[in-house]
Amino acid sequence: MVSFNTAQSWKDIYGARPGHKTFVKGEFYSGGSFAGIGTTSIISERRLEVHKQMRDYLSGAFSDRAILEQEKIVTASVDDFIRLVGVLGSQIEWFNMSTTLQSLTCDITGDLSFGATFGALKSEEPHPWISVSLEAMTQGEIVDVLNRFAILAKVLPVLMGSKLKKLTENTKKNEELSYNAVQSRVARKTKRRNFLTRILEDRDLSVVTDRAIAAHASDLVTAGSDTTATTLAAALYYLLQDDSSSTTTTTMSRLTSEIRNVFNSYADITYSSTASLPYLRAVILEALRLYPPVPIGPPRVVPDGGDTVDGIFPRAKHEPHRRLPIPRRTSTTHGPSNQNDGSNQTQTPSTTTTTTTATSTAAKPFSLGPRRCMGRNLACFASTCAPPSPSSSGRTTSELAADAHTVEEAGLDGSRYE
Ligand code: HEM
């Protein structure tokens, strides 16, 4: 558990509900764009009750229904990406796939959050929003360090004066660009449904200002673009480690044949149709486990004297860097079965079941509890963390999960602690 500072009161730390520990976010989240000028977002807000209200208010933008409405926006950028990769692949010897994936996810999250892509897939020059936002994030981290280390607070401004000045300017610019983008979207009537559609429909004007919406929108791009691009790049990297000349079945060849067996055309590949592909799901989960895009334990406040979580440490894997063999399914409608998985290990079905369970319970790439990732369904992992099966209330589990403030409410995890 990470302890950066001490909390004011027991209630601040644990929240109102007995039996549920909810650790408050650390001061790490207080600097950077918007939070630094007192306008907090769903990510930077540290007060439990205010965050709960924000999460309730924003949850409509992340429901399964909203994601389906937004699908056209996502596929428009995916089409641009596929075209670009085709052109680059045929014209030049090599290109940087990580950068191209970053362009893809910035365009998608930019379009969803502000109503227009950044044009990153169509331009060599990064959009001003993208370049200044990277600096703005760094500024948040530096503010946190300065707050925590008194000596550095004295020395850094002397050593890095001009750099810090530039970071501050870029943070201001990021706030301005985000605010202007939100204002022009508010002024524009459009039928295109993105995050802002729900956020604007659901807002109470006396409580939620345009600046507050700009803070959310800006942080949604930051939270959603780098994480998703990192996951895709990691999955691709590990898939390409397979020996393409191998005569045995590799992870790549099994994945390719699952996709080609199921889809007849490119147009058939959608959010809903990919959610039910078991091997694709396993590959993405494994990439998230091996290369979690948020590898830090997100900073939380620990009470004076420290604390434990249920008195136990989480179970850990013995060999965290070893790629797990992806389980072979004995009966499935998709993909090949009973084939060698290329891991050179002989596994019985019961062993592979255990492996899957260990992976999905030990790895929490989207975090847990009330500060759990709101965009996990959008990141196309609905099937991995909240299968969209109907619940007794008639709502899908991913809809419930999007609204829930505890994993228990979401019915996703037996853990008592959030
Ligand atoms: C593979 C992709 C993703 C991963 C691994 C991921 C992971 C995470 C993690 C670990 C957190 C907790 C961070 C903390 O406590 O500081 C988080 C929070 C969050 N994520 Fe994601 N994320 C992903 C994609 C997205 C996307 C696409 C969006 C939306 C565009 C998004 C929106 C959010 C939001 C709004 C929060 C804050 C939730 C809250 O505090 O209530 N994420 N994410």
UniProtKB/TrEMBL annotation:
<dbReference type="InterPro" id="IPR036396">
    <property type="entry name" value="Cyt_P450_sf"/>
</dbReference>
<feature type="region of interest" description="Disordered">
    <location>
        <begin position="384"/>
        <end position="418"/>
    </location>
</feature>
<keyword id="KW-0503">Monooxygenase</keyword>
<dbReference type="InterPro" id="IPR001128">
    <property type="entry name" value="Cyt_P450"/>
</dbReference>
<dbReference type="Pfam" id="PF00067">
    <property type="entry name" value="p450"/>
</dbReference>
<feature type="compositionally biased region" description="Low complexity">
    <location>
        <begin position="302"/>
        <end position="311"/>
    </location>
</feature>
<keyword id="KW-0349">Heme</keyword>
<feature type="compositionally biased region" description="Polar residues">
    <location>
        <begin position="329"/>
        <end position="344"/>
    </location>
</feature>
<feature type="binding site" description="axial binding residue">
    <location>
        <position position="373"/>
    </location>
    <ligand>
        <name>heme</name>
    </ligand>
</feature>
<dbReference type="InterPro" id="IPR050121">
    <property type="entry name" value="Cytochrome_P450_monoxygenase"/>
</dbReference>
<feature type="region of interest" description="Disordered">
    <location>
        <begin position="295"/>
        <end position="368"/>
    </location>
</feature>
<keyword id="KW-0479">Metal-binding</keyword>
<dbReference type="GO" id="GO:0016705">
    <property type="term" value="F:oxidoreductase activity, acting on paired donors, with incorporation or reduction of molecular oxygen"/>
</dbReference>
<dbReference type="InterPro" id="IPR002401">
    <property type="entry name" value="Cyt_P450_E_grp-I"/>
</dbReference>
<protein>
    <recommendedName>
        <fullName>Cytochrome P450</fullName>
    </recommendedName>
</protein>
<dbReference type="GO" id="GO:0020037">
    <property type="term" value="F:heme binding"/>
</dbReference>
<feature type="compositionally biased region" description="Low complexity">
    <location>
        <begin position="345"/>
        <end position="363"/>
    </location>
</feature>
<keyword id="KW-0408">Iron</keyword>
<dbReference type="InterPro" id="IPR017972">
    <property type="entry name" value="Cyt_P450_CS"/>
</dbReference>
<dbReference type="GO" id="GO:0004497">
    <property type="term" value="F:monooxygenase activity"/>
</dbReference>
<dbReference type="GO" id="GO:0005506">
    <property type="term" value="F:iron ion binding"/>
</dbReference>
<keyword id="KW-0560">Oxidoreductase</keyword>
<comment type="similarity">
    <text>Belongs to the cytochrome P450 family.</text>
</comment>
